[in-house]
């Protein structure tokens, strides 16, 4: 694990990026901006357009959100209980969750971009 | 209620509920007392009156009775306060609940154990640290500190270590290893001191899993502080300093200007005043008489007086 | 009376309640603590939602699965959760900007000046307090307006 100050610098940096990225991400679903209704914004056709237009930006958002969220979660869990075994468990949990989310998110994008084919 | 027509302060009977704890049986219970309160009666006055007149088993800790020692921190009406600086009638409730400070182990009734709290304070090295080993171990001169530099830290120096901030902090409530607002505020106080060179050493202690990063600026410490120390401000300034240092590729940044030991020119205050009893024989006579009087009842005192007599007559 | 037992000292930590319930202690003039609690709860909700969200979006690659999932959004509970989620993001973001300035840059908390009676803490009466009230105000407006737009589309009224 890196030093705590490095982690928290990352936390603040990703927070600043998220403030911009997440606003756009949420605004994409706001009725009247990009789509007429919320329901239209979650149709498969709209999702396809999003992945084709913003593909790698979405992965950047994913990475930034995962880093920010997991450092925050780790902080809360470290406050909840103390002790070397708990700390090891928390670090493992955070790394595991991060790998799961980044892996699954990248898989989804690559499938949409046609690099991986769904169903083999 | 205010003041009566005849100018005498109005009194009111206040019900006081004390959360008591007996360490031998482990029993914890609420006990009620009734105390007559008038303008100026503090919670500590009331507790002392209860102890003197109603229940001598009630245990609490106090010392100065004037908000200077920081011994009588208690949870009064769910708010951490100094019992000596809280007036019963100011609270405005008919029932006043008094509990020991939370987040500290309770020893008995209202007495809490400050061991961990003081240890965390010691952990951040609350003293001047110099780079030179010789200066640390054999300080030989004062360090010059300009008044404007003193103004930067004096707010944090007013800390009386009463533990109210520690009791109010929502993070201390769950994290027993968290350094807490008092220690972190003091860390900032020593880091900004111009005479100090221990920045790196202290940042190592503070840049920890349970150090400065566990603060989330709930601000309760500052809201509870009876001396206006404002630990929350100190912690945020300490943290932004650490963030800047980390962002700047960990440059070892020294304080802008570290004061060096300087010669202090003493003002000539003149000689010591002359003794008021010019004639030593008068004092000797008085002491001998007193010693004789006390010979029967207080032989030790008489002996001490004779010892003292010997020292002044021999010189 | 029996013989004296070894004294046991009472661990008197307030625990999780003291951490996330602002009124366990009655600390006056401290809206920052309310903001801290909300920031923590919304943060927890968002980090729990994030893996779920990533899992759900992975279902878009399968047309049938995605159609089945979209049926779930007809459920009023899911629609209500969407609104709670939106409010969480808005609050966490707005308050996060304030915290970035205060914690990361040390802005808005005043200068450490010598305290004078009645010993008002500078950090709680400086600019960040104004920012905090602005955060609460903007959050509530955006959340309620967003709710009206969202629920109108869902046909609640």
Description:
The complex is a heterotrimer of chains A (120), B (315) and C (157). Chain A has 120 residues and is an all-alpha fold. Chain A has one domain (4-112): 3 helical TM bundles of succinate and fumarate reductases. Chain A has helices at 4-27, 38-41, 44-80, 84-112. The model of chain A has no long low-confidence stretch (mean pLDDT 90). By secondary structure, chain B is an alpha+beta fold. Chain B folds into three domains: 11-112, Beta-grasp domain (Ubiquitin-like (UB roll)); 115-247, Orthogonal Bundle (Fumarate Reductase Iron-sulfur Protein, Chain B, domain 2), CATH 1.10.1060.10; 280-314. In chain B, the strands form two sheets. In chain B, strands 2-1-5-3-4 form a five-stranded mixed sheet. In chain B, a hairpin with a 2-residue loop joins strand 3 and strand 4 (79-82). Chain C is built from six helices and no strands. The model of chain C has no long low-confidence stretch (mean pLDDT 92). Chains in contact: A-B, A-C, B-C.
Summarize the topology:
The complex is a heterotrimer of chains A (120), B (315) and C (157).
Chain A lengths: L3 H24 L10 H4 L2 H37 L3 H29 L8
Chain B lengths: L10 E12 L4 E12 L4 H12 L18 E4 L2 E4 L5 H4 L3 E5 L6 E3 L2 E2 L2 H9 L9 H5 L9 H11 L6 H5 L11 H12 L7 H8 L13 H5 L6 H17 L32 H15 L4 H16 L1
Parallel strand pairs in B: 1-5
Antiparallel strand pairs in B: 1-2, 3-4, 3-5, 6-7
Chain C lengths: L14 H6 L10 H28 L4 H10 L3 H29 L17 H4 L1 H27 L4
Helix pairs in contact in C: 2-4, 4-6
């Amino acid at each position: 694990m890196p030093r705590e100050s490095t982690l928290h610098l990352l936390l603040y940096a990703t927070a600043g990026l998220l403030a911009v990225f997440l606003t756009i991400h949420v605004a994409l679903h706001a009725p009247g901006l990009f789509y007429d209704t919320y329901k239209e914004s979650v149709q498969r056709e709209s999702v396809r357009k999003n992945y084709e237009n913003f593909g790698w930006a979405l992965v950047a958002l994913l990475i930034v959100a995962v880093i920010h969220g997991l450092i925050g979660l780790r902080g809360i869990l470290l406050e909840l209980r103390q002790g070397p075994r708990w700390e090891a468990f928390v670090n493992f949990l955070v790394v595991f969750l991060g790998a799961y989310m980044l892996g699954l998110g990248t898989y989804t994008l690559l499938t949409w971009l046609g690099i991986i084919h769904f169903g083999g | 209620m205010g003041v009566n027509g005849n100018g005498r302060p109005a009194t009111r009977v206040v019900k006081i509920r004390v959360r008591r704890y007996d360490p031998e049986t482990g029993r914890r219970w609420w006990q009620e007392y009734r105390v007559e309160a008038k303008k100026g009666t503090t919670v500590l006055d009331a507790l002392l009156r209860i102890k003197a007149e109603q229940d001598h088993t009630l245990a609490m800790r106090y010392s100065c009775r004037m908000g200077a020692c920081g011994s009588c921190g208690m949870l009064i009406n769910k708010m951490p306060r100094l019992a000596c600086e809280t007036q019963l009638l100011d609270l405005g409730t008919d029932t006043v609940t008094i509990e020991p400070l939370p987040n500290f182990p309770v020893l008995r009734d209202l007495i809490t154990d400050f061991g961990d709290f003081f240890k965390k304070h010691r952990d951040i090295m609350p003293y001047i640290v110099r780079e030179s080993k010789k200066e640390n171990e054999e300080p030989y001169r004062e360090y010059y500190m300009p008044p404007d530099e003193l103004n930067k830290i004096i707010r944090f120096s007013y800390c009386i270590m009463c533990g109210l901030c520690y009791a109010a902090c929502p993070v201390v409530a769950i994290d027993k290893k968290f350094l807490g607002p008092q220690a972190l505020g003091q860390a900032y106080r020593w880091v900004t001191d111009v005479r100090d060179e221990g920045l790196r050493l202290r940042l190592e202690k503070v840049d920890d899993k349970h150090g400065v990063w566990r603060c989330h600026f709930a601000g309760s410490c500052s809201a509870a502080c009876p001396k206006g120390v404002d630990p929350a401000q100190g912690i945020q300034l300490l943290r932004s300093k650490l963030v800047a240092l980390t962002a700047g590729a960990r440059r070892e940044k020294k304080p802008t200007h570290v004061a060096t030991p300087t010669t202090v020119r003493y003002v000539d205050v003149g000689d010591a005043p002359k003794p008021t009893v010019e004639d030593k024989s008068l004092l000797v006579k008085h002491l001998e008489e007193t010693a004789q009087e006390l010979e029967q009842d207080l032989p030790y005192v008489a002996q001490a007086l004779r010892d003292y007599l010997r020292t002044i007559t021999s010189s | 009376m029996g013989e004296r037992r070894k004294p046991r000292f009472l661990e008197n930590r307030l625990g999780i309640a003291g951490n996330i319930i602002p009124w366990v202690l009655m600390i006056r003039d401290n809206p920052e603590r309310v903001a801290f609690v909300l920031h923590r709860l919304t943060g927890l909700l968002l980090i729990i939602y994030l893996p779920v969200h990533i899992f759900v979006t992975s279902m878009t690659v399968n047309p049938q699965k995605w159609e089945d999932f979209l049926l779930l959004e007809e459920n009023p509970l899911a629609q209500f959760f969407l609104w709670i989620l939106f409010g969480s993001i808005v609050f966490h973001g707005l308050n996060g900007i304030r915290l970035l300035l205060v914690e990361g840059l040390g802005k808005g908390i005043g200068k450490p000046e010598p305290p004078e009676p009645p010993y008002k803490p500078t950090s709680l009466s400086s600019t960040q307090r104004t920012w905090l009230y602005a955060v609460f105000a903007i959050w509530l407006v955006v959340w309620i307006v967003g709710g009206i737009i969202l629920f109108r589309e869902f046909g609640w009224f």
